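Revision sheet: structure tokens.
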Amino acid sequence: MPYLIAQGKQPHQRWRRLLPEGIVLTLGRTTPRWNVPWDSQVSRMHAHLQLEGDSLQVERHETARNAVYYQGKELQQFELQLNQHFVIGETSFSLVPSELAASLIPDSPAAEQTFMLTDLHKIPFEETSHRIELLSKLPTITASAADEQELLSKIVDWLFLGIKRASGIALVRQIMPEKGEVEVMHWDYRGRKDAYFRPSQALINQAIKSELSTIHFWNQDTESEYTELQGIDWGFCIPMQGDACQNWGLYIAGKTDTTSRLGSDSLTQFQIKQDMKYAELASSTLSHLRSLKNMERLQAHFQQFFPDVVVDALLSGSSEELLTPREADLSIMFCDLSGFSNASEDSAANLMNLLQSTSDSLSLITQQILAQDGVIGDFHGDEAMGFWGWPVAETPEIHARKACAAALEILTSFLSKSAFEVTIGIASGVSVAGEIGSNHQVKVSVLGPVVNLASRLESMNRHFGTSILMDERTSALIGEELQEAVVIRLGRVRPYGMERAVQVSTLLGREDATELLHHLENYAKALAAIEENNLQQAHKLLLEITATEQPQLKFANVLLGHVELHLTLANKRNMGLQKSEPHVIHLAMK
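Predicted:
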């Protein structure tokens, strides 16, 4: 896309901005971006501009006081082509191509010097007060940039104010370092009208490859196609530091007033080195700003999935290394919105409300996972997954405790803030965690049998009438550590489709556990009786518990039904039950 250059009477009355295609822009003295504040003959809103391909449609605004001149004529509307201009008041507006290639013309310098950053720091400033004033304005100037293209434009404009000897300035980068191919990202030229600015590819490649700021001086008294075309006799390139500006360079070239050989003119060389020091400050500022912007983007991305403590670790080190898939000891949680299917049917005529309610409920889940330093894994419709113990390793006791604390907080949040209920499954063990996916889509997730178990435990809540179920390892890891709840062992269960039986437990608030202490003790006795094959004793205890019809003790009905099945059915094998395992509850469906 072409650039529009505005140029007033004074050299500093200038801007150069990339034109977006197909968008109607308003040019005026006080318009937000396309403003010309230095020219009183430009009205507040003076002309409408619209780029179509490589031509610019210009139409004078109906409220504009002064004329718009194109090719010496006053016109209301016209089409501006590349390398043409129009005039309002004392300001000309030129349409120029955006693409600029680095020059491949041999440009052997008469003199060459290289500098490390420490060398530049030792050089004193010229026009110290003026440049200090400009430096003080740099943070405000850069902060006002709406996007990166505008940031580059403002940096270049600022450099021209401080380096009056500069004819052309370009921000460049090596796009294929092994071939020395250079891309000019942003440039501006304020030299001779008949000259054509083309940065020296040889100088740029040398500076970036060596990581040394490099100056080339060309002699004015020696004929050179390169210097004659551009009207320059010196140029320097500063390699930019940091990952955010990798293989970037700041290229500045100009022409001195002297006619002496620059290779031997120490005063001129010294003045240009002072310019170089000033340019290095702009280079460092731009690098820091881009690093900060990149970090902010990364932080915003990571904060969707990781708690603050993990985000800090990712930003302070190598995120690629931390996110690489690896085996880790984890606690994994699955959360599902109960009643979602019914709500979907009831909300068929108002699906947007259902979407909002679902999003709000899933947000409650993710907030509590992140609050307990967990990582957000997958979303599957009405289900969310979180896990602990990666990418920053924790002891199994700590990550199991955090997972259970998050589960309890989720239940509390749903009681007051969600139209849905929630069921939760937690399992702990070794899994593979990291950035997992195809070449086209990568996400943070976990793989392994423990993940499958956590998902099965979540779905088993519907059988037991519970909200939280966890495996044996998780309950062993947290022990009596939770202040808000106690672990209640429910029994050994063989989930549907699984060959191995698992010990299943739930969490019960300490206040409820205290009130129901007698019944919970009887439930523990019933489990012990079943394991000793004393089904009659277990049946008696379970009848007493279920007779209370306490909602917190619904799980006792499952064990009671299991015991009665073993007591009353003579042909247990034909029912798919093994006589040798009366202590294992078999679930016949998911």
